[in-house]
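Example record

One chain of 448 residues, shown exactly as stored in the release files.
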Amino acid sequence: MADEASGYVQARFTTQQKRYSVPETPFSVPVKLGSQELNELISSLLLSNESEVSESEDENERNFQFDFLIDGIYLQETLDKHMRLYNISTESVVEIEYLEKHPTPRPDNCLLHDDWISSIAVCKKCILSGSYDGNAYMWDFNGTCHLTFDGHTAPVKSVQWIDVDDDVGMFLTSSQDQSIRLSEWSRNKGKAECIHICKGHTQSVDTVAVDSSKTKFCSGSWDKTLKVWSAVADPLASDEADDNEKVKKKQKTDKRKATTRTPLMTLSGHAEAVSSVLWMDQSTVCSAGWDHTIRIWDVQAGVNKQTLSGSKVFCDVSFSPHSRLLVSGSADRHVRLWDPRTTDGSIVKTTLTSHQGWVSSVAWSPSSEFELISGSYDTTVKLWDTRSLSAPLFTMTQHQDKVMCVNWALQTSMLSGGADNQLIIYDISGGGWRTRDSDMEYHSADTT
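Predicted structure tokens for this chain:
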């Protein structure tokens, strides 16, 4: 209960991180406290709980940093302002949850390309990047470029791994040359070989996504259609169609001829270009487009079963298996969370506002239902927690031009690529940083 005369409120502190637990008995705390003062309070309680602190213990190991939530919303003001803003009663004990502060994203490496970076796909050991110079590149996380894949005749717009292990990998590249190439990479041979050229789109293929079974993939194009294809490589297949002269010329030096593959299915419904596709489950695809819609498709039936409408072009969409929510990036500069399961009419659950330009790319955290990143034409990358309604947790400003793509497939690393030809790797492991912003290592894709 609040003591209005003295400006205090009764608060109980709880955490799901057991190593940071403090007694859950209510404390009388001043209502003018903010996160910094609450940090000092929790830290002092934790230190007082220790029976003995070693003199040799690193001071940084005891420099606890926490974020605080009341009713599931980040505390970003003083207690009294937060409680007034969200109509929280001061007449009962206030439950304050605290959690370890998210590690600050630190730029750890920079991989220089010769042109804009359109797409990034990662596995545990390798980074696959697509560029407007028409090439795809294979990197390790130390910045060494192991492969330049030059199969396309126009800018590469999307790259995706189908499957990869220590010795071999299968991946997709799609391009403005209207084709998708399914290729095999051998670590031992140090080269990639195109097995299938997937043809059927009549304009730029801007996006591809592989399903969880690794047997199918979906593509989206400026021709307004989605197409579903087999992702299973068949090196012994015979060609299904004649290749054009440019592709024939590139294949003269190939040991085996790539065969043409046609789509299993075409999904029509978008009125403008398709900018993003993803699989929500084995039979459900989600697409976003320049026609201001996000569409959900039943692939088995071949029908558009739900349409979510916006007011501007959608640039990208990402799905979280943890929260079952979609997040979109749009030309109206906003990041939005959508719940397609809702029955109360409020499909848009949250709007995150901070970017000053088109939001070109979005990606959910691989492990958290609350965290996501966004990249924008305003040159910034932002890390959000959906419980922080008024501001992102962090804003990364290392890019010098438009951010074209972001990736958060690995828990310890975020990646972004831009029109400044930089692919930046951010370390979010919370450990010691190998580099500071000013000491960032640069590596070039020029391997000649």
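Notes: The longest strand covers residues 156-164.
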